[in-house]
Predict the 3D structure of the following.
Amino acid sequence: MSEFRADPLFGNPCLIVPEKATRPNRVRVTQASPRAQSVHLSHPLEDQLDYPGPCPYCPGNEAFSSPEIYRTQDLASAGPNRWQTRVFAHRHPAMKLEAPDLFTDLKALGHSEALSALLTSKPGFGVHEVIVESPNHNAPFWEMDVERSIQVFKTLQKRMSDLYQDRRLLYVQLFKNHQTAAGTHHEHPHFELLGMPFIPEPVMRLNSARECQVCEVLRKEEPDLMGQANRSTQNERMSTPPPRKKKADLSSRRAHSERFMTATTQFVALMDYAPEYDYQFSIYPSQHHSNFQDATEDELRDLSRLVSQIFTRLNRLLGEFALNIVIFSAPNPLGFANPGSSSMHWFVRVYPRLIRKTGFEIATGIPVVRVAPEDAARAFREKEL
């Protein structure tokens, strides 16, 4: 029987119709893009992408991208083109810092009033950057060794921290579009970020809640986490972060929720209760921390290993697939009188793009999910590494 559900974090509805998964070709209709065989020849998908020849994100082609903002050097190799990660402005930015800053007057308004004011035409003030994950044209970060994957996360942290020095940018959204079906215009693995002069409503919902909604989800889904995540209320919030407590080993536990995928000492992965897409899942820090940019190297190492394990298993279960990755984190702390007042709990959400949306979903905004999250989690757990 079908079932309506609501996302406990963002409130979005969905309709679970597991019977649809039994229809031929219903579980998977989008196809993975073939991987390019050469980074210096015309791309086999160039008619679908926005460049006519050599990949501008590959080593030696740096002149084809915008001026470089930041890079991490490949210490194992010499030469000007030997880098690990590169950051530069998007060639066709959705927002520009050069646009007139007409948002100063909005800062004096409440959040709802500011959003209403934005419904009128305003210049696209903001920042749009590209973060190239690796010189390798065919290696997304989850296929790299752990140390290189950590470097990707550190680069994301660096750019978020740098941009938050600008008080005009209230929120920086980090995201990754993997393959053309997920919206990418360059198949070379990369993240993007958008720095905005306002806080998106879903983030504001989590940030201004009386208690951390992610901690509530973890307490309900994984009771062993009680006492691990810091319960956050308006009366308990402090201007300085609470001390980090000793972490429990979640990976060896036996009692889990039906949506449990896997866990480490510092993170837990769960299929989302009310997903927008089949096999949609989230990775949560097991303790309450608001800002992704404050994650330690030890935590990033744990996260890198977990992500690699998850994608190895999912690719064996589903084959290669298009996806979007979004990192949700607290807004710019400089935009608040009390920077320690956030109820936000940063986390990573992954949206597999296996099914195209139908007219009903577009018209109503209610996604139809063909694989129940509980079934997806069970299939994931049963798939051998």
Summary: The first helix runs from residue 111 to 118. The chain has a mean pLDDT of 82. The radius of gyration is 21 Å.
